Amino acid sequence: MDNIKIICKKELAAFFGSPVGYIVLVVFASLTSWFFASTFFLSNQSDLRTLFDVTPMVFTFYVPAITMGLVARERQSGTLEFLTTLPLSDLQIIFGKYLAALILIKIGLAFTLVHAFTLFMVGQHIDVGALIMGYFGLVLVGAMYSAIGVFCSSITNNQIVSFIVSFVIVFFFFILEKSLVLVPGWLAGILQFLSVDYHLNNISRGVLDTRNLIYFGSVIAFFLLLSTRILEMRKWK
Amino acid sequence: MIRVENLTKDYGPVRAVNGISFEIKEGEILGFLGPNGAGKSTTLKVLTSYLAPTSGNVFFQDMNILDHSMEIRKQIGYLPELNPLYYEMSVYDFLQFVATTRGIKGSAFTQRLGKVVELCGLKGVVQKQIGELSKGYKQRVGLAQAIFHDPKILILDEPSTGLDPNQIVEIRELIKNLGKKKTLIMSSHILQEVQATADRMVIINKGQIVANGTTEELMTSFKGKTVLTMELVNANEDSIRKIAPTVSDVTVGKISNDKGLITAQFEYPNSTDPRKDIFAYAIKNQWTILEMSRKKVSLEDVFRVLTVEGGANG
Question: Is B97 exposed, middle or buried (0-12, 13-18, 19+ CB in 10 A)?
């Protein structure tokens, strides 16, 4: 556990050690704010629905941007060899990096709390439960995208490639629900279960079903274990 | 201390290391010498658990590297080839990161930091960003990182690549000092460098060991000599010694006497073949020859590559 924290700390320091990190955060905060604020007063509803609807889409850029360098940069600069010969297991390295991504997701989401504050200032009859579930859903989506991002970062030494591949995979999960009208009925059920929106909608409606949690949990576990395997591939005979 | 047995490593269809075996004793400085692409780095990467061998075994004090990777890694300090570092970190943060992964924290860290900074000559740059440092200082940071936990074993992959001549001298001095208390493996493609620091050399070319011995032994054999070993009876050392002026180009090496059975070594340049003359001399002195064996030391090619490259790189 200590080792995971060490890696996580290093990644966070690296993220905030470069201007790119701040730029990515500012872009995330501005995009979500713009989407939210431009309709908030028109719709005249005391909730953050727009924010919860639009953030998963903004995540499709934001998450690949924060995860693209996690492993790829170490491959590029050769520090991966240094890192993996320290007494750290490959699993600890991947989990530490993943944990750093999670924290950055939460920092990004923390910026959007300013809208919740606005809501409390001007709104009435606010459903606090819905707000909490909405944020919980966003954290889950961010966590899932991050796992995909870590995986894509581990397969290449090029951050751009990592960004594009993880954007494509994340976008696939994101767009599935919206493209269901195009596929035959028997396939639609399976694809619907794979789509992020389907599970996220349940949660943001306030229904906490174990099936939804299992979905997020298993996608995260799948991509993290796959990333660890990729890292271990150097040891293949 | 470290035993490498029949180590083979393939990268896909390319065989980088082909069945090499050698041993490193405790407290020894081993120079791992070979031209570029000989398989030095690959071998070191296997020793440090970065890669797994395709076949063969590596043992550290009888612990197999595949089964006890974590314990072995804790005892090793490693400076990888090209010295990769986190350029965006300060020297202090970097060393703290490495120390924490090695379980050194708090006051133990502060104490050790003072020592390491002094040992590696890092005074005055500890708060600087690694990316801003000169190449020589980066190399010192790489060494500092490798020795921070005071490891029993130090593995340095081409520690002086890319340094200017003054820096090379300094780094060599530093390595020699470190090697006094540690088992140290250092790879290089420069003969002079290994010659200056190592007790023993393993020379590798095209994935295979071409020579393995003390630095002195190998330096002699580099000159391209043939060693002729003869087992004799009815001979005496005096007459053996007198062969040198009689037969041209021949020098007398080691002579041992085991209850009348004399083993004598004669050396001559590869360009000549005075075996007939030696035989004639033996008959003249009425020696009885039991055995006569010749060993050609064919390191010239490797030697040339190493010295030429060494000359080019300083």
Answer: buried
Which one of A10, A71, A79, A82 makes the best mutation probe of the B interface by having the most chain B beta carbons within 10 Å?
A82
The alpha carbon of residue A144 is apart from the nearest alpha carbon of chain B, in Å, by 28
Tens-digit pLDDT string for chain B (314 aa): 899 999 999 988 899 999 999 999 988 999 998 888 889 999 999 999 999 999 999 999 889 998 999 999 999 999 998 899 999 899 999 999 999 999 998 999 999 999 999 888 888 999 999 999 988 889 889 999 999 999 999 999 988 877 788 888 888 888 888 888 889 999 988 877 888 888 898 988 888 888 888 877 777 666 667 788 899 988 888 888 888 777 878 888 888 888 888 998 888 877 788 888 888 888 888 889 999 888 766 555 566 666 554 433 33
Query: ipTM higher than 0.90?
Result: no
Helices (H) and strands (E) in chain A, counts: 11, 0
pTM: 0.83
**Chain B residue numbers touching A86 (CB-CB < 8 A):** 73, 98, 101-102
Q: Does B89 touch chain A (CB under 8 A)?
A: yes
Scanning the structure block, which residue is given the tokens 């979905």?
A: A215
Nearest residue on chain B to A4, judged by CA atoms?
B101
Considering CB atoms only, which of B51, B82, B101 is closest to A234? B51
Q: Which residue in chain B is spatially nearest to A3 when comparing CA positions?
A: B101
**A61/B28 Cα distance (integer angstroms):** 54
Query: Count of A–B CB contacts within 8 Å?
Result: 65
The CA-based angle B204-B299-B182, given to 5 degrees, is 45
Strands B14-24 and B2-11: what pairing? antiparallel
